[in-house]
Specification:
The chain has a single domain, classed as Spore Coat Polysaccharide Biosynthesis Protein SpsA, Chain A. The protein is built from 8 helices and 10 strands. The radius of gyration is 18 Å and the shape is globular. The protein has an 8-stranded mixed beta sheet with strand order 8-5-7-4-1-2-3-10, with helices on both faces. It has a two-stranded parallel sheet with strand order 6-9. α2 links the parallel β2 and β3. It has 267 residues and is an alpha/beta fold.
Length: 267
């Protein structure tokens, strides 16, 4: 019998989406866990597996064994990163819900600068790798030229269509207060790579200010994003604009999702 409901409600939930990450998820979990165990507030770590075909689930289970506050959802079907993050954000129980990438390109210490903003009552805080968003943004390892060119061209299109004024919508380190997370992810529809754009567009649509902090970002060469993924993302940006124009996004009443993640400690 799982005992998740009996635990103290966490202040911070960290959600990590994972697809075929057996080679690097262990290192990321080690780093995230090391950060969380030094914090004075209650927390939970939730890993959501997106129909992995390798041994990611085995690595996660082995790491979580004997550790408190680590849960995971092992979904057999591959549904995409957007679906996976959405599932985790709605299953999480924290007052603040942060999703971060399995490659740990933006490490957990960035939350040290996010927390004061949430303490002041903010609802949405994101990191950016672009100095036009935040002067202190930096990339420890510059992206390859082809990635920069595709990213710059795509971003200009995305700004015009969906999220004006944000130069880096794709940095995988975004945090939301519980109410904002429930409202935004409760109506989000994009299952693929461009879900970040929809999430930010919805945040503004629902009247939430988006606070941006600079990221110290380390590129991971084994990314799953491909050229075809960039093209698809531009098409999905148009879908977001269409949904906004046609009123497809109805603001929901805040309500907790009943999805129950697996837990390392069971009785």
């Amino acid at each position: 019998m799982e005992r998740i409901e009996e635990e103290m409600k966490p202040y911070l939930s960290v959600i990590i989406p994972a697809y075929n990450e057996e080679e690097r998820i262990g290192k990321t979990l080690t780093a995230v866990y090391a950060y969380l165990t030094t914090q004075p507030y209650p927390w939970e770590l939730l890993i959501v597996l997106d129909g992995c075909q390798d041994n990611t689930a085995g690595v996660v289970a082995a790491f979580a064994d004997g550790k408190e506050s680590i849960h995971w959802i092992d979904r057999p079907q591959n549904r995409g990163k957007g679906y996976t993050v959405r599932e985790g954000m709605l299953a999480a129980r924290g007052e603040i819900r942060l999703f971060t990438d399995a490659d740990n390109s933006t490490d957990m210490h960035h939350f040290d600068r996010m927390k004061p903003l949430f303490d002041q009552g903010e609802h949405v805080v994101i990191c950016s790798r672009d100095k036009k968003d935040a002067a202190d943004a930096q990339q420890a390892t510059p992206q390859p030229k082809h990635k920069r060119l595709m990213g710059d061209a795509g971003n200009l299109f995305i700004q015009v269509i969906a999220v004006p004024g944000i130069w880096d919508t794709q940095c995988g380190f975004k945090a939301f207060r519980a109410q904002a997370a429930q409202e935004i992810f409760g109506v989000a529809q994009i299952n693929g790579w461009l879900f970040d754009i929809e999430v930010l567009a919805l945040a503004r649509h629902f009247g939430y200010k988006i606070n941006i902090l600079g990221a110290n970002w380390v590129d991971e060469p084994n990314t799953h994003v491909t050229f075809s993924g960039y093209i698809k993302s531009l098409i999905e940006a148009l879908k977001v604009r269409w949904n906004l124009w046609t009123g497809a996004y109805k603001r929901p009443e805040p309500a907790l999702n009943d999805v129950k993640p697996k837990q390392a400690k069971q009785m």
